[in-house]
Structure formats: C-alpha cells, structure tokens
Write a structure and sequence with these properties.
With 414 residues, the chain is an alpha/beta fold. It has helices at 17-31, 51-60, 65-78, 95-103, 140-145, 152-172, 181-189, 230-242, 259-266, 280-288, 305-312, 325-328, 343-355, 357-374, 377-396; strands at 2-9, 35-42, 82-85, 107-111, 124-125, 128-129, 175-178, 197-199, 217-221, 250-253, 272-276, 290-295, 317-320, 335-338. The protein is built from 15 helices and 14 strands. The protein starts with a strand and ends in an 18-residue tail after the last helix.
Length: 414
C-alpha cells in the first residue's frame, strides 16, 4: 500500500504525543513493507520567518492556498492509495482536504483531540469541563473567553477555521480514526457523522525495558500544563507529605507553561525530583523503574499514551476516572482511577498503590497482558491497514443515485 502522511509537527521544545504517534505509525507501516511518504510542515520553522511572515501565520490557519496547490500536484504525480491526515494547525490548514479531492485520493484523519468541535481541542476552560461551543454553528464562546492561550486574538483563527471548514471535514474525510471510544461518543453527540467515526487506539512499541522489581519512584511524564493535572498532583503530593509520605519519591519529567512553578515547588525537597525533559530512552527507563505512572488530567483525555506506555512496561497507572482513561485502566486490576479534579482522591489512590507491593506487581502483570491484547504493534498495524482499506473501498463504492464518492464535488474552487 502507498500512503502519504500529512502532519504539521508540533514544537520540539515540548513533549508531543501526536508527533510520537505519527513517527511510530510511519515506522510500523514501513517495517511491514508499505510505501510511506510525508507531507509535513514544522511549527519550529515559524521562528525563522520574517516579521511579516510571522504576522501572516494566523491567516493561514483557516486556509492555506499554497498548501492546496502543492499537495494536489504531489498527489497527482505520485498517486498514493490513501492520504492519512494528522495535525493541520497552524501551517497546513484544511486546504489539504481540498487537495485530496482535487486529485481524487481518499483521505483518512486521526482525531488526536477535540478540535472538530472545540477551537483549542480540550473541551475545557479555566480548569473545568466546557462544552459551550459543541454543536454551535459559530464557536463564539471560545473567542469571548479567549480559550486558546488565554487570548481572544489567538483564538479567532481557530474559531474561524472550525466554523468555515466544518462541512469540508465531515464530507471530505472517508474515515475518522477516533483514538478512544470515549472520544467517539463525544463527537457523535456533537453531530459528527457516526458512520465515518471508527475507534482505532494508538499502539505503543514494545519498550524492551520491563519492570523487574517493586519500582523506585512514582512518575509523572508529560506536558507541564494545567489541563494535565499538574497542580492537582502537587496538591495531592503535599497532602501525602504532610502525613509522612509514601516511601518513594515523585519524579516529574516534562516541559510546559508550569515549568517554573514545578521547579520552585520541587526545589529543596527530598521527596520530589523535577527531571526536566527526558529523551526517548530516558522515558523508557524511567517508566520501567516506576511503582506507578500518574496521569491526573483534568481535561477529557482522548487517549492517554503514557498510560499505555506504562502497561507495556508492566507498570500500573493512577489515572483520572474520566475520558479515555476509563477504558484504558481497569480500576483495581491494571491500575487505579481517582475522582477527577479531587486532590484527596488522587492522594488516596497513590497511597493505596504504593502500600501493597504484591498487589502492585499483580496489577503490573495484568497491565502488560492488557497491552499485548489491545495496544501492541501487531494489533496497531492490523487496525491501521483495515482502516485504510475501508476508506479506499468507500471512496470507490457507488453512492446513492449511481454517482461515485469521488465525484461529490468536495473539492470546490475556493
């Protein structure tokens, strides 16, 4: 199979689960003998633009005509079987879908978050769940509240793109890959076409490093942001420390907007270590040495890659009991689920998972079995190729009235 992957890579200065998923899927397909090529833009390149070029970036978010022309020309020249779209913000834009229609190549898209129904993609505002824009024709509440980077001006391009490109997304993509059933449920309720929404969990390569003992630390691995529950974790850990601690330290690894706050909080403490940004090998080793991985997100995670990485290493997780975590973590079997947003509940789960080493090891073994059954490379490859074949078949199948899907007119002259 010949696949062209379309992705706007996130900044390399912060952890990106999406970048990791894209790289892993490309490697998986190539290892299986498929021909995979890339059509990419990099957010890192924005810094090298001239001042006028930087100022023009928001204008490209809803529509980038140059990308449409470039991608359409490449598709006509190379004729891939399918285009797999990941992130298009900020430099690619939904113009990639028009290019696919221009060239008559079917497109699939992985939905890594909720940007189809929420401009910043988090379904959260001020640390609390928010669905004000879900189902709205124009997502004006997001602009009013400045939901992206706490800026009304920065939110406008995302809100405009969502509003003007909604129909193009919903008609121009043959198959959407939802990365959890929880995410699919939200999107179906928001009005997205249920028949095109398939659940395809992200896979995780076997890390090679597996936990062999009881573990040395608790680990938070990810972006240091409010939505990831970092402040909630700090509050819960302070509660545990006031009671004498749990016998192992907390390691926090990552980068993000709360980095200074985390650094100051951890300074001078023996029970906390802020490790900064780990590379891939350091991540694998840190997970394998964990008593448990902690994922206390306050927003509705569409997946939760770090939880599955822990499973692969035979390590249980303590995660928030909402969003995708409820289908990834079997409470009391492969880990523990705490009440979302409640520091006391998170502290209680951390206390429980560190207090019984034998039970913890049993959870770790169950987590590894869950990984092998549902999130291994073999399972990931099967579901990915199946999705591509379904999309290709749908594109070529006669539609009602005898017309083909390829002649629906999705590629207008905009």
């Amino acid at each position: 199979m010949h696949v062209l992957v379309v992705h706007n890579r996130y900044s390399s200065a912060q952890p990106s689960g999406e970048n990791k998923v894209v790289d892993q899927e490309v490697g998986l397909l190539r290892a299986a003998g498929h021909r995979v090529e890339l059509f990419e833009r990099r957010s890192d390149d924005i810094a090298a633009r001239s001042l006028p070029g930087k100022a023009a970036v928001p204008l490209l978010v809803p529509w980038n005509p140059a990308v449409r022309a470039q991608l359409a020309a490449r598709l006509r020249a190379e004729r891939p079987d399918v285009v797999h779209v990941h992130n298009v913000f900020p430099l690619l834009s939904p113009a990639v879908l028009a290019a696919c229609a221009d060239a008559g190549v079917p497109a699939v898209a992985t939905l890594h978050n909720y940007t189809q129904v929420c401009p910043p993609g988090t379904l959260q505002r001020d640390g609390r769940p928010c669905t004000e824009c879900v189902g709205a024709v124009a997502p004006l509440p997001a602009v009013r509240h400045g939901c992206y980077r706490n800026s009304r001006l920065a939110t406008v391009p995302l809100a405009v793109s969502l509003s003007v490109n909604r129909r193009r997304w919903w008609s121009g993509v043959e198959r959407f890959f939802c990365i959890s059933a929880a995410q699919r449920d939200v999107l179906v309720r928001a009005g997205m076409p249920a028949g095109r929404l398939a659940v395809k969990h992200n896979f995780v390569p076997d890390p090679g490093a597996r936990r062999t003992g009881a573990g040395e630390h608790l680990l938070y691995l990810g972006r240091l942001a409010e939505a990831k529950g970092v402040r909630l974790l700090m509050a819960a850990w302070d509660e545990l420390a006031a009671e004498g601690g749990v016998g192992v330290p907390l390691v926090i690894a990552g980068a993000g907007p709360l980095e200074r706050e985390v650094t100051a909080w951890a300074a001078g403490r023996e029970d906390v270590r802020y490790a900064g940004l780990y590379d891939a090998e350091q991540c694998r080793q840190a997970v394998a040495r964990s008593v448990a991985v902690v994922a206390p997100s306050t927003w509705l995670e569409a997946f939760g890659l770090v939880v599955v990485e822990a499973m692969a290493a035979g390590v249980p997780a303590v995660a928030a009991g909402h969003g995708a975590f409820t289908e990834l973590v079997e409470d009391g079997v492969t880990g523990l689920l705490h009440r979302p947003g409640e520091a006391a509940s998170l502290a209680s789960c951390i206390r429980r998972i560190t207090a019984a080493p034998d039970r913890n090891r049993e959870m770790g073994r169950a987590a590894r079995r869950r990984y092998e059954q549902g999130f291994s490379p073999a399972v990931g490859l099967e579901r990915l190729v199946e999705g591509y074949r379904s999309a290709i078949a749908d594109r070529s199948a006669p539609a009602r009235g005898g017309n083909t899907r390829a002649s629906r007119g999705d590629g207008d002259s905009r």
